Structures are given as C-alpha cells and as structure tokens.
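Quick one, T. Sequence first:
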Amino acid sequence: MTDDYSMVQVDDVEPTPSASSGTDHVDLVSELGCTEMRPKVWYLSPGDAMSYHRQTEQEELYYLLDGPGRMKIEDELIDVPEGTAVRIPPETNRQVLNDTEGEHVWLIIGAPPTSDDGRPVAEDA
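Structure tokens:
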C-alpha cells in the first residue's frame, strides 16, 4: 500500500461548529493532512448562514453537494443548483446561507492554505 494518498469517509467524522459562525463543518484539512489547500464540508440547517466575509489571500471554490443552495456575492443573492461549482477571488465579499426548509451541504476549498484568512464584512459596508 502506498502512502501517496489519504482518504476519509466524511459521514463517519463528527461535524464541529465554526468558531466564527457556529455552522457545523467537517475539517478535511486535519482529516486528510492537507498542506496545499483548506477543504471543508459545511452543513447548513434551515435558517443557518456562514459569516459574510472576504479573504486576504485565499481563492475559494464552493461546490454544492446537496441543496439547492443560496449565496450572497457582493450585493447579489444568487441561487446555486445542486452540483454547481462557484469560484470566488479573495477580495470578493461572500456568504453561504440557507433560507429554505432543507439542509444544504457544501464542499468549500480555499487555497493557498493560509490560516484564519477570512475577514468579516460589515453588512452596511
């Protein structure tokens, strides 16, 4: 067996709440030993929302695993169909939210793997 890969069954990992938004997620960085990216699986219950933020350095990829999903990008609220990928550059304001009655599940990957790169955005900014 090779040591050139790592694998985890995401459903077997207990989600933990985010320090900034309280949204449950599975941190794949620690589970897989990632060094060049920051992947996480996020679980948004009805009425839940991640913090409205932008990044300093990280480009982020958002992929909706189970939805439909909703995102606020700058001042625009957009619908994101299940199976859709969205790329957002660092300085663009963004938020994932759930204003529906079902759970949304997102795979979100940031790169480069800077720690605590997100900066909250004032809603009136």
